[in-house]
Specification:
The protein is an alpha/beta fold. Helices cover 24% and strands 22% of the residues. The strands form four sheets. The chain has a seven-stranded mixed sheet with strand order 3-2-1-4-5-12-8, with helices on both faces. A three-stranded antiparallel sheet has the order 7-6-15. Strands 9-11-10 form a three-stranded antiparallel sheet, with no helix packed on it. The structure holds S-adenosylmethionine (SAM).
Length: 358
């Protein structure tokens, strides 16, 4: 392998193999999801805020469970993934569950050629950044699709949690993997899928890129978005030996004999950023005028109220992967429900690896 294109092709073939394995796995809990519920965590629901009636673009949506969870919250959703199989399964699932959702097959880096529209919320989560060679290119795509006044939200494993050796026998922290982006990806031997290690998989390797947290924040702000918060959490949403031990559906740093904390590390993060400006067609409201004089909430806390009309998602036909689809041609959205079901999350890494793929 020589360039990012070849690494991406290989990873895409791997994801195509993983889709059906993951959809069958206990890890994803699809059967339970079919009966209702969500894969979204309470903290992200809170941090994204109410999405009822809003347009939401989900980047790297896999086979759509998170996308459809947002549909259950009342958002008008479009999921994007470069795995053809993922998109096929996602569309089938949306139809089966009678949830309004569209799915676009596209490499993230080509999305501006494959999708029109601006969105109230651009969302991505859990095991996404490690597949991307070019963080600035990613951030430009993200920023392109956020409408003025809209937000980008990401929740992801903290890059600092990914630097430690995951093959040690003892629970010790030993540095092994790069923190900042390397030109070449890290090459991992592939063993099944992260959701089912015993599943037979033909693609032998996985290629991952590290990205430091500063690089992520800088890419987002260089793309023109204003970071509103960056939260670091002391848990991961999947096991990552030797770092963490399980507490419910969260994994944390091992504790001492008497349950006392033995130091802390950031293991997960969330970030929200906003595009400055007004949605098209909106005029400044009275409260906005007042806030400039300092007598109302700041624009940071009182972001523009979003209406479906302001979402400005193109309602035209798109021709993608040989299929015609229409944002308006779906059944009406189902009522949002949240059942507080513990969510399972995607794991990325770690197996035998060599830094710097050949
Ligand atoms: C870990 S999954 C997404 C996580 C999601 N929260 C889940 O667990 O269902 C990562 C997704 O990124 C997609 N992906 C990787 N590289 C991509 C690219 N360049 N363009 C679009 N999708 C990509 C993969 O196909 C996969 O579905």
């Amino acid at each position: 392998m020589t360039g990012p294109g070849e690494f991406l092709s290989s990873n895409r073939a791997l994801w195509n193999e993983w889709v059906d394995i993951n959809a069958r796995s206990a890890f994803y809990g699809l059967e339970e999801f079919r009966r209702g519920g969500t894969r979204l965590r309470p903290y992200e629901l809170e941090e994204v805020g109410a999405v009822e009636g809003k347009s939401l673009l989900h980047l790297q949506c896999h086979f759509g469970m998170d996308t459809l969870s947002w549909a259950r919250e009342g958002a008008r959703v479009i999921g994007v993934d470069f795995s053809e199989r993922g998109i096929v399964v996602a569309r089938r699932l949306a139809e089966e569950l009678a949830l309004e959702a569209s799915f676009v097959h596209s490499n993230l880096y080509d999305l501006r050629s494959n999708l029109d529209g601006k969105f109230d919320v651009v969302y991505t989560s859990r095991g996404v950044l490690n597949w991307l060679p070019d963080l600035n290119g990613w951030a430009d795509v993200v920023a392109h699709f956020v409408r003025p006044g809209g937000i980008f939200y990401i929740t992801e494993v903290h890059p600092f949690a990914l630097v430690f050796d995951d093959e040690v026998e003892e629970p010790v922290l030993r540095l092994r993997y790069p923190y900042w982006t390397t030109e070449k990806p890290i090459k991992f031997d592939n063993v099944g899928s992260y959701a089912d290690r015993s599943a037979p998989v033909i693609v032998p390797f996985e290629y991952d890129w590290s990205h430091g947290l500063g690089e992520v924040v800088t890419a987002i702000s260089s793309a023109g978005l204003t970071v509103e918060f960056l939260h670091e959490f002391d848990f991961t949403e999947w096991p990552m030996p030797p770092l963490v031990e399980r507490e419910g559906d969260e994994w944390r740093m091992p504790r001492g004999r008497f349950g006392e904390p033995q130091g802390e590390l950031p293991l997960f993060f969330s970030l929200r950023a906003r595009k400055r400006g007004q949605p098209e067609g909106r005029t400044p409201s009275r409260s906005r005028t007042r806030s400039r004089r300092g007598s109302a909430a700041s624009s940071r806390t009182a972001g523009p109220a979003t209406t479906a009309a302001s979402a400005n998602v193109s309602a035209h036909h798109h021709h993608l992967a040989g299929q015609t689809w229409n944002h308006n041609s779906h059944p009406p959205p189902t009522t949002a429900t949240r059942h507080g079901r513990p969510v399972r999350s995607c794991s990325c890494r770690r197996r035998k690896a060599s830094a710097g793929a050949k």
